[in-house]
Amino acid sequence: MNTIILETVSALRQFVAARRAEGKTIGLVPTMGALHEGHASLVRRSVKEQDVTVVSVFVNPTQFNDKNDLNNYPRTLEADCQLLASLGADAVFAPSVEEVYPEPDTRQFSFPPIDSVMEGARRPGHFNGVCQVVSKLFMMVEPDVAYFGEKDFQQIAVVRAMTKSLELPVEIRPCPIVREASGLAMSSRNTLLTESEKRTAQSISQVLFLSQEYARNHSVNETIAFVTDTLNAIDRLEVEYFQIVDGESLQDVADWDESNDIVGCITVFCGERPVRLIDNIRYK
After folding, report:
1. Is 126 annotated in the active site?
2. pLDDT tens readout for residues 150-173
3. Rounded to 5 degrees, what angle do the CA atoms 118, 60, 249 make?
4. Mean pLDDT of all residues in the chain?
C-alpha cells in the first residue's frame, strides 16, 4: 500500500479531513522515531482496529531536560518510513521542529501527584514537554484512538490526565510491553548499547521477573531491596530508582494489600556512557 509522508501541519489536516469526510475512524501512534518491534506492535494494532492510521515521527525537544540526550537520540527517518509502509500505516507525519513549534510553547501542565514522582521528580519539565507535543498532535490529527506502549507506564497516566483536563475526545489505548528474546524491553535507546552492554541490560527484566516470585513471600520493602541490590551488584548497572506503586495514583505502596493494581517501575543506567533504560513489572 502507499504510505504518504506529510511534513506540514496543513498537509496533515487536509489528509485527515479527507478521510473524515469518508466517515473513517482515525488511529494515531505518536513516536520519536528509531522505530522497533514495540512501535510496530502499536501500528499493527491501530491498522487492525481503525480505518486510517497516522504515525508521527518527531523527536520532541521540549521533553528533553538534557541537551546531550536530545542530540544523541537516534534518528532513522528513512528506515522508519520503510517499516511503516510495510506495516500498512496510511500516513507518516514527520515535521520539523519549526513546524510543530512556530513559536515557543509556554503552556504549563501540572497533574500532581502522578507527574511529580519517579520520572517527573528526576527529569524536570519532561512531562510538561510530553503534554505540549501530545496535545498538539491530538489537536492536529483529532484521532479517535491514540496508541501508547506500556513501557512508558507513567507517561500513559500523565497523557490520560492531560486529555481529560483539555476535554479532548481521544481514547488512550495502552499496549503491552514488547521485549527482545532476552527479555530486555524494546527501546530506541537500546541502539545506543554495545552488544556487551545489551547482554548486561538483560538482567533488568530477569531480576524484575524473579521479583514477582520473590514478592509472594516478602514485603514491599524487601522486594524493593532485592531488586535494587541485585542489579547494583552487577558491573555497569546502576539503579536510579525502583518504586512499587499503585497503578492508578502512581504513589508508593507500603503493603501488598493496599491496592489491587500494583506496578514496579524502574530506571537503570547501563554501560560506560551510560544509557538510561526504563522498565516496569506488574505485581497485581
Report:
1. no
2. 999 999 999 999 999 999 999 999
3. 25
4. 97
Full DSSP string of 16-76: HHHHHHTT--EEEEEE-S---HHHHHHHHHHHHHSSEEEEEE---GGG-S-HHHHHHS---
Give the HSE-up count for residue 235: Cα atoms under 13 Å, Cβ half-sphere.
Answer: 3
214/39 Cα distance (integer angstroms):
31
As given in the structure block, the three cell numbers for residue 254 are: 507500603
Q: How far is CA 42 from the centre of its chain?
A: 11
Domains defined for the chain, CATH in brackets: 4-175 (3.40.50.620), 188-282 (3.30.1300.10)
Q: Residue 72: what pLDDT? A: 86
pTM over 0.90: yes
Q: Return the bridge partners of 242, or none.
A: 266
| Cα 42 to Cα 185: distance, rounded to the nearest angstrom | 15
Instruction: Give the Cβ contact number of residue 30 at 10 Å.
Output: 23
Q: Is 257 left (phi over 0), alpha (psi -120 to 50) or beta?
A: alpha
CB pairs under 8 A, 24+ apart, for 158-166?
A: 158/111, 158/114, 158/115, 158/120, 158/127, 158/130, 158/131, 159/130, 159/131, 159/134, 161/111, 161/114, 161/115, 162/109, 162/111, 162/131, 162/134, 162/135, 163/138, 165/109, 165/111, 166/135, 166/138
pLDDT one-digit tens code per residue, 168-212: 999 999 999 999 999 999 999 999 999 999 999 999 999 999 999
Cell of 126: 519532561
